Amino acid sequence: MKRVIISLTLASAIVCITLQAQVPSTTRLEKQHGPTRFEKSHLEQMEAQLVCDLDSISTGNQTVVIQDIRYLEQLFPSHPFASFIEPLGRTLKNTSADPVARKLAALALDELHSNAGDAIINEVSDTPEDKDLATLCKALQIGDRTWEKLGSKK
Q1: What would the mean pLDDT of 107-113 be, rounded to a whole number?
Q2: What's the whole-model pTM score?
Q3: In this predicted model, which residue has the larger pLDDT, 10 or 93?
């Protein structure tokens, strides 16, 4: 009788652990840093505001706006954010813009995973005026090609 009870208890524990592993995780980190309902419902409005801010803001504050864009891209990875491509591309190509803002714009364009953004990064990688930016853009291109190769091996 003891063996039957122990076997049933062990089997129940295994079933419970298996079922619990299939439940989506709601850790404190996910609750704290995931998108809120407010952010989800106002996504298009935030996107439009960030595009306007990036075009109209002073050069020194562009880094803050670009970081906000990158934050949104990370919060909503399935959203295309196509409206960011053109203003980020202008910032990336602008030789008089803040060098940090230009590098952040390259990273943000790369995170969009779009052909248009990749073309802008490719174009800037051939410009000789900012060697650090050209090196970053070349590294982003190599990373994209590596991921494409890995994806085609499936």
Answers
A1: 94
A2: 0.72
A3: 93
User: Is the model's pLDDT at 153 over the cut of 70?
Assistant: no
Residue 24 is given by DSSP the state P
- pLDDT tens-digit series, residues 39-71: 778 888 999 999 998 888 777 689 999 999 998
Q: What is the Cα–Cα distance from 63 to 70, expressed in whole angstroms?
A: 10
Report which of 32, 112, 114, 45 is spatially closest to residue 73, judged by C-alpha positions.
112
How far is residue 77's CA from residue 8's CA, in Å, rounded to a whole number?
A: 44
Rounded Cα distance between 67 and 65, Å, is 5
Rounded Cα gap, residues 121 and 117, in angstroms: 6
**CA 8 to centroid of chain Cα atoms:** 47
Length, in residues, of the chain: 154
Closest CA to 54 of 70, 35, 38, 34: 70
Q: Which two tokens stand for residue 84?
A: 């960011």
Most distant CA pair in the chain, distance: 82
- In whole angstroms, what is the distance from residue 132 CA to residue 102 CA? 10
Tokens of 92: 């990336």
